[in-house]
Every structure is written in C-alpha cells, then in structure tokens.
Amino acid sequence: MRLLERMRKEWFMIGIVLAIAGAKLEPSIGVNGGPLMPEITVSYIAVATIFFNSGLSLNTEVADSRLHASPCVFCSDFNQGSWWK
Fold first, then answer.
1. pLDDT tens digits for 67-81?
2. Which residues of 1-39 are buried (b: 16+ CB within 10 A; e: fewer)?
3. Domain boundaries, the chain
4. What sign has the CA pseudo-torsion 54, 19, 35, 37?
5. How many whole angstroms separate alpha carbon 5 and alpha carbon 2?
6. Which of 6, 35, 45, 64 is least crowded, fewest Cβ atoms below 10 Å from its Cβ?
C-alpha cells in the first residue's frame, strides 16, 4: 500500500521518467516530420495550451475587472480620437 501511495504522490516525476525512457527507446517518433509533428505541436498547440491553462487559473475578480476596463479604454480612445478633424 505504501508503494501505491508513493506513486500517487510522485505521479508527475514517474511520467517524466517514462517519457524520457520512451524517447530514448524510440527517438524516431519525435523527429521533425515524424508522427508527433513537433514543428506544429510545440509551436502552436503547446503554446495555446499553456496560455489556456494560465487563463483558467486567474481569479474571477481579476478577470471581471479586466473585462470591465477594456471597453472603457476602447470607448475613451474612440471618443477622444481625431475622427472628426
């Protein structure tokens, strides 16, 4: 039972070790043009996932205040611009 508890606690490190071992055994999966397509996966999908996860971790109070500030800044810029000159 202690081993199972330890594995649940250290699941991230176990996953990293397994990923490194898998890459060592079969490196052709992650090369450019391979099945994982790292030129697309890392460039677009990984970056989008990181920003999405960081957006989910924002407090709702912070997000609400920023959503309110954006239209105010846009309206003040629009109203004070040189549209009618």
1. 555 555 555 555 555
2. eeeeeeeeeeeeeeeeeeeeeeeeeeeeebeeeeeeeee
3. 1-59
4. positive
5. 5
6. 35
